[in-house]
Amino acid sequence: MKVGSFTLIKDSVRTSFNQQFGQHGAWRREFALRLKLLSDWMDSHELMDAAVQERLAHLEEQVRSDKVMVAFVAEFSRGKSELINAIFFAQYGRRIMPASAGRTTMCPTELGYDAQVDPCLRLLPIETRLQPQSLMEWRLAPEQWMRVDLDVNNPAQLAKALEKVAEVRRVSQDEARALGFWHDETPEDNPPLDAKGLVEVPKWRHALINFAHPLLKQGLVILDTPGLNAIGAEPELTVNLIPQAHAVVFILGADTGVTKSDLAIWREHLITEADGISSRLVVLNKIDTLWDALSTPEQVQAQIDRQRATSAEILGLPLEQVIPISAQRGLVAKVTNDKALLRASCLPALEDALAHGVLGQRQKILRSAVAVGITDLRTEAARVVHMRRRDLAEQMLELKSLRGKNAGVIQRMRLRIDQELKEFGQSNIRIHAVRSVHMKLLRDAFDILGVSALKAEMLTLNTSLRQPGIKFGLKKTYAETFARLTTGLGQVQSIMAEIHSMLGATFRQLNADYGFSLQVPAEPDLAKYERDLEQVQRNHQQYLGVGNVLRLAQADFTERLVRALASRVRVLYESALSEVELWSKSATAQLDAQLRERRKSFGRRIAAIERIQQAAGGLDERIGEIEASEADLLRIESKLGELTLYVMNAPATDTTAVPLLSDPE
Ligand SMILES: Nc1nc2c(ncn2[C@@H]2O[C@H](COP(=O)(O)OP(=O)(O)OP(=O)(O)O)[C@@H](O)[C@H]2O)c(=O)[nH]1
Ligand SMILES: [Mg+2]
Prior knowledge:
By secondary structure, the chain is of the alpha/beta class. 60% of the residues lie in helices and 9% in strands.
């Protein structure tokens, strides 16, 4: 088996997370293929307008680029990096992520895959903390990161390069303070000073690893984090990155259980409201340290069970979500292909829980998004087909009424079509007026959720947070800011309702005047973004609530916190706006499609009359043609139903058939 040209060790110890993720990826590829088939077919039958095309592209992009992020969070030395090695990298036959006694990983490290970039490790210097940009903004400036090329065919080089995430620097106390690693208010949390009075701080702020590991290629993103204190004040990690992960694995030592500092991390990063709990897994790691020659296996098991029950109770989780394992023994077992040891390590149980919890959920969400999108598409396309059929039926009636009639009658018919065409042209003025109001309303919506409005809001927040005594008014300040952010969404929702009712009236009129079958699609419900905002608000309050509120006294900390919030809300608003835009486009595209079809139909009617005027046999010939077109449309209609069903029912390919470790392309 190969990754690129690198020969992997035997894959007989294949893991269930790998398999499940492979299945998820296979489903997405199959779906993309079927979607392509549908869009080619629609295109060749002229059922593809701009809005339909955009919607298809959007769906395809959504499924193709769907990322699943799994974050590993814990106090230092609990075995996060070792566990990542054991679950994802055992096939390299060695440790890939540095894992060693004491503090090892010094900066948050994200592993993912971007086809546009060669395999590399990118490191953001810690000094960037002295500048105001958020992490999300730094991501958009890859040239500012230190870059190390990775040779994915050489596990030793790979592991060597990744050692950089453990690098540290020694800086003066003042510099440590400026970087967020020294706090005069909480001296007990400060790192020790060395003989020269220097403080050790991480060399890097964030690391991004890009390489074509099969799982990463399929959209998995792994986030490894450093233990307490090594993160320093990086609010973005707490308020953005970790809350957005699809699953968070929290690791404890089986020997120690839940310690005070474990609890501090749990409180800062992992407490969420009840519905978020299902995406939290707690790992009781290093059970091998309890394996002991003087105790019977039953006694050892009883100890593990006890630790498990106590930990679950302290953290307020159901017992099934606490999984005892040995990451290190699991890694060794996979590398040496030792099945008995792998079983004893219990690693497969954890992989199972991860796979079912995360991927099952993810696929459900994707499938339902796809189902909604495809149903809408089908309705749109069916509307066009329906109108074509109506036009044909009317034309058929018109032509049949001409049977056996003289040239005078035919000429009158010709004049009547010209008259109808003229009346139809007058609808343009009305439509134009409605369009311009529509555009204006849409611009208002874009202003409300736009960059400048958000900037102003964030400035206000920044100023309020830095007022002395904010500790007591914190809740109120956040509540007010978020209330205004939410109001913005509400206003846009009302604008959409206004557009909906205006277009609704116009469409009804056009339907009555010209026999159209226009219907304004239901406007998207922005409530889910309101819920997201609530979640963001809770993340911020939670973060500040666990002691970080004192840091608001430092201007740069507050700046970073507010920037992190701005980045997050920006993304949220942009998604909301793109839904609004797509909705508005599909309404206008529907109108455009019917106008276009109608113009074509006029053209066909005029051409038919001209042919009949020129040749006696023209009439029957034309009636025959219409009959054939009607039959075609029936076929198109049923094929449309068949193809959309085919797209929606894309099955997840059987795992055994997925060449997981080979190149998926
Ligand atoms: N005995 C035993 N040791 C383990 C196990 N898992 C990890 N270790 C060891 O514990 C030490 C710390 O592991 P890491 O993976 O570096 O821990 P971490 O949580 O990533 O720590 P930081 O990077 O410092 O935050 C290493 O020496 C590992 O080999 C295990 O299951 N059993
Ligand atoms: Mg580590």
